[in-house]
Task: structure prediction
Amino acid sequence: MVDLAGASEPPRPAVGCETRWGLVARLCAAVAIACLFLLALYPWGGTYFPEGNWLRGPLWLLKSQSLGDNVFGAFVTVLLLPALFAWVVKRSPSTIVATVAGAVAWVAFGMWLAAMAIA
Result:
């Protein structure tokens, strides 16, 4: 006797396996979250006071008039954003460590800029 009741269901991926569209959706979500993150933390005012908020990290350099500071700020921002949002793309212990390390590096860079602004 053959049970054909389960034959009409589509095959399910194995535990831990993810489909390609799931990866695309997570990448799009990570980009959207990163854009909101940058929009929320960008210093929009006309003044330059990096000692006021450490959470803005390298975004303070994008407010500077110096081209070298702008390039360095953009480089550090592009370098740290994938680490900050690695957990959105792939959830594993290593990406959680990368996210925490990226967040610590982001705030540490903001602290360093504040120390340089005060000195």
Summary: The radius of gyration is 21 Å. The mean pLDDT is 82. Residues 18-118 form one domain. The CA atoms of residues 28 and 55 lie 24 Å apart.
